[in-house]
TrEMBL record:
CDD domains: LuxR_C_like, REC_NarL-like. It comes from the Bacteria. The keyword Transcription regulation applies. SUPFAM superfamilies: C-terminal effector domain of the bipartite response regulators (SSF46894), CheY-like (SSF52172). This is Response regulator. InterPro entries: CheY-like_superfamily (IPR011006), NreC/VraR/RcsB-like_REC (IPR058245), Sig_transdc_resp-reg_C-effctor (IPR016032), Sig_transdc_resp-reg_receiver (IPR001789), Tscrpt_reg_LuxR_C (IPR000792), WalR-like (IPR039420). Keywords: DNA-binding, Phosphoprotein, Transcription, Transcription regulation. The modification 4-aspartylphosphate is found at D54. It comes from Streptomyces marokkonensis.
Amino acid sequence: MIRVLVADDEPLIRAGIRMILTSAEDIDVVAEASDGREAVDTARSTAVDVALLDIQMPVMDGLTALAELGRVAPGVRVLILTTFGERDNVLRALGHGSAGFLLKDSAPQELIHAVRAAAAGNAYLSPAATRHVVDTLASPAATTRGEEARRRLAGLTEREREVLALLGEGLSNADAGARLHMSEATVKTYVSRILTKLDCDNRVQAALLARDAGLEPSAG
């Protein structure tokens, strides 16, 4: 079972998320929190695999809670719940090591898929919210980010660059393996090596680097 913590200051939203997630036979909502501090304290004392954090919460907001969880419960994968008007917060969340993000009005199946992806160690980028990131990447500052990203990717082997390009497309280890004719375990080894070389905390950060650098999957 995937053990989930849901943190949101609105009881109705928490109830709705719980109802959706518990409809999946492999997911169990083991705890809820009404603010970021409560979420951190709960994750410290309760076995949790994935935490869903709203960005806007009292006492401690979701981004601060995300950073704190990275220190006190590094094994917990964090998904950030966001709205269309919070693009900068999305980018900050990814920078702080979030496993991904999705919009509060996402379809129920998308929420379930995101939790499963995070629990499996994969990144989940909501297609709708990703458009906000792409808009930012197209800003004038993107030129500087692109130069820095290409510098960091310079130390990767050709095979590592191929794997990273597929991470940038949001592919899972299994899908990347199928595309590259490699086993899922081999892809996982490559991903671990890539994260170490790029000094990235997770796949999402590596995927954004790939996009900044303009890395594209090979035609084959």
